[in-house]
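Re: that backbone. Tokens:
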């Protein structure tokens, strides 16, 4: 909705301590054009929205959805898309691994028995970790664009292998 984009832009400018003139300068528009969109007196075009997103270093798809240029996603899909977008912004492998650990810690592990040691697979991976990997792959499969799944899975497996290798070399 245009009102949603206008409200979001207004809040974002305030958060960054930017004026409408500053946003306009960075996006290649006049402060009047920016003001008209923020105030809802003008409907943003796709070009305007993309240039503003780039000026703010934000995901253009999200802004295009706020402007109703692209259809809104259902709430769950929107959250998944945002999570994947944020995960892709993480460049350092150790930070990606930390993010995966945090997500793993937030998942419901109540279905996984915790009272006794679990048997390990042929690769030395216990059942709890196997279940976490299965769940992670399932989520990644659902939210990753089909053309990018192989690269994402390959990277995930590499990160997991490095982590397992690192843990196996740590003392006790």
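Recovered sequence:
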């Amino acid at each position: 909705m245009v009102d949603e984009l206008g409200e979001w832009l207004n809040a974002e400018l305030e958060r960054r301590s930017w004026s409408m003139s500053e946003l306009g300068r960075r996006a290649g528009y006049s402060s009047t054009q920016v003001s008209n969109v923020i105030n809802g007196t003008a409907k943003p075009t796709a070009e305007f929205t993309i240039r503003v997103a780039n000026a703010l270093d934000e995901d253009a798809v999200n802004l295009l959805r706020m402007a109703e240029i692209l259809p809104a996603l259902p709430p769950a899909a929107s959250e998944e898309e945002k999570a994947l977008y944020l995960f892709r912004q993480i460049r350092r492998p150790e930070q990606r691994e930390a993010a995966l650990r945090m997500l793993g810690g937030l998942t419901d592990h109540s279905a996984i028995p915790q009272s006794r040691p679990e048997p390990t697979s042929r690769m030395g991976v216990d059942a709890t970790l196997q279940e976490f990997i299965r769940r992670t792959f399932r989520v990644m499969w659902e939210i990753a664009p089909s053309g990018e799944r192989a690269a994402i899975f390959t990277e995930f497996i590499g990160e997991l292998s490095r982590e397992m290798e690192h843990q196996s070399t740590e003392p006790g």
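Residues 144 and 150 are 10 Å apart (CA to CA). The chain has a mean pLDDT of 77.
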